[in-house]
Fold this sequence. Notes:
The complex is a heterodimer of chains A (about 375) and B (about 375).
Chain A (H helix, E strand, L loop, with lengths): L2 E2 L13 H12 L10 E6 L11 H4 L14 H5 L5 E5 L14 H15 L20 E7 L1 H10 L11 E3 L4 E3 L2 H5 L2 E7 L7 H7 L19 H4 L21 E6 L24 H4 L15 E6 L2 E9 L10 E7 L3 H6 L7 E2 L13 H8 L2
Parallel strand pairs in A: 2-3, 2-4, 4-7, 7-8, 8-11
Antiparallel strand pairs in A: 1-12, 5-6, 9-10, 11-12
Helix pairs in contact in A: 4-5
Chain B lengths: L1 H9 L1 H18 L3 H7 L3 H8 L13 H4 L9 H7 L5 H13 L7 E2 L7 H6 L4 E4 L5 E7 L3 E2 L4 E10 L4 E2 L3 E7 L3 E6 L10 E6 L11 E9 L4 E9 L4 E11 L5 E9 L3 E11 L4 E11 L2 E9 L1 H5 L7 E10 L5 E2 L3 E6 L21
Parallel strand pairs in B: 4-11
Antiparallel strand pairs in B: 1-15, 2-3, 3-5, 5-6, 5-9, 7-8, 7-10, 10-11, 12-13, 13-16, 14-15, 14-17, 17-18, 17-19
Amino acid sequence: MSTLFPRIKNSKSKKPSWLARCALSLGMAFGASQALAADNCYIMVHGHGTQGNVGSNALNYWSSYNFSEYAGSSFFDDLLGPGDNYAIVGYDSTDASGYPYWRNETAGEIARQIISIKQGNGDGYNHPQAGTQCSANDNFWVISHSQGAQQMMFIAGNAVSGSPNYNTAYTATSSVSVSYSSAMSGVLGIFALGGAVTGTEGADRICNGNWLDSLINFAFLGRDCNPSIEWLQTNDVYTARSYIGTNLGAPYYVLGGYKGFPGLESASSSMIAGEDDGYINLASQMSCAGSGKRPIEEDLNEYRRFLGVSYGSPTFRCNNANKGTPRTYNMASVYTDHDAERNAGIAAPGYTSIENGITCGNGQNMAGRIGTCTN
Amino acid sequence: MKFRFVAVFLMLGLVALLIQMGTQREGDNTVTPAMAAASSVSADKHRSAMQFPTITPDQPPVTPTATTNIDTPALSPIERIRAIQEKTALHQSVLEDHARFSRYPAHNRRFESAQADPVLRHYGTDERVTYSEDKQFALSVASDQKYYLPSQTVYLSAKLLDASGQAQPGAYAAQLIYNETVSLGYLEFSDAQGDGTYQTHLSLSDFGNQILPPGLYKVLITEQRSELVDAVAFVVSEPVIKLTGEYREALTASGDLIFEVEVDVQEANRFYLQASLYTSSDQAIGSSQFANELAPGRHWLPLSFHGRLIHDQAEHGPYWLKNVSIAKVGVPMERIPLQQNRFYSRSYRLEELNDQPHREANKEG
């Protein structure tokens, strides 16, 4: 187990220069495939506590912060290179509305917006970065954070014929048809950043009535066990993996954080089993088989412990063969917290080598890793 | 990076030629829709050939070109990734995933061992451990199942562990909650064996002289000495569908194996059938699934296993439809307790099975 702390400057140098682009364009003129000309389109699915269907809330989510250390940072600064595009998905994930992941207002709305984006309709937001609206011919990747990852698991896991909730979302009283299969068709990959794939122990504590303090910033989670929180609990009967079929409509790459929150809020980690990003167990973020609160460490292994110290060989390894969901792959275990995951507030976080990890972008934050690995 | 791309620029002619060759090779290996159709028999065709029942499966995933206004690029998304000359580790992973995914129909999934059996995993129970802030104590709680019928009894256990993992005496209080909102009563744990493992049970058909209705239940467990709290949650499933115990199987003209499972439906709903296939020597092959709306009455439901999936285990028949799960779809998902069968197919030889990868044209992504 080796934790590395490289000081790699996160710059756009990972992207092709103008000279390279000229060469590539000329290459096409000579009859080369248009493959190299396709731009990336990153479809952004935000997490809990955002009224993303109103104003620019969903866009602002990716530069909002709960800790002043991260003020001024934006996920897109480290994600986008020349030619890259993005599209914002907005839905209502507030406690006031209280929609669980299987609702038409959450999974259904996300799927419909993904379909529209893939049709080249744009996302309807004024991007601060000029010329970054997606087109229909782009290479589509979905990036989800926190609760967004749970909804993407439900969508992808019901996009395949024969799945239990194939193309189905729920209202308060009935089910409705939503074409998850169309939403997932042609999507090259889904990235889950700090994903509540198998819930969060924070939701357990709220719904079990022993959330003893207010250390957690409640922008992430409300105080009451409304249905959106209820369905974020870690018992398996609540989790998305119990509501999907045996295959996903697109590969699902997990990136987990294992740094506590800054300052006093770092105490939240002491209430969570195993490593965590201050809010979500690493086992849940990485969609490990077994309990969503199993005590895995930053190398994604579980060990015997004596007096709080790990020893011996792993008793469980959360590698690609031991995922609790199908078609799910390790990407990275990064020393970052739940807030910095979405605003890229930590420029060059440390990381831990993990089994089956994907090494492109090592040393960069989650946004930078995705930008590097997809280009 | 710049030097690399300058080199690309100077060697442009060679690069273009290589890309063209690569594209040509890709084209040679690509299964056209016509080829795919020729190598694949639809579920409808299966039933027609074998006079199987009239249940219509969900429509397969549709391609964007068939249902949307997405402009059709010259290359599919996955082909564009293949054509990238300097692939990242992620690009390689996407291609490898695509090769695995498209090898079989999407309703099939290969797994290597019983431990990875997706049917069993839905029923497996997890020991849940909650640690004190100073990590000096841990509360471990578990139930014997996740899904119950109203006629069954729920068995629960709890133990308090010290920092060395040794069970300690505890004092437990437990509350039964229905659908997260209704408190139904309290349970008492006791340490009958004197080993620090405290247990209790509740009869779902007789809890305080009432029959507990189907739904989502939680038992909130507090260990008062450590003040640690956790909950065990489970589902009581309404028995509106059951397996009759009748099975049949046949080999399709294209060499895929179809099992049929008879169910008896009491109430119309959408239902989900899932099963895993093993060799007669108990080696894992893969899983299949089927979901649809069903009216009251008896139905034969199909579970298709692609020939290539069975070939990849490289063992002759008979094949064992070992673990079968049926569920009433909804929120919560009401799974009927797992049924483990002794139903085997006939002794097919591998040569009788389709050995061609599936590679559907609509799986580009």
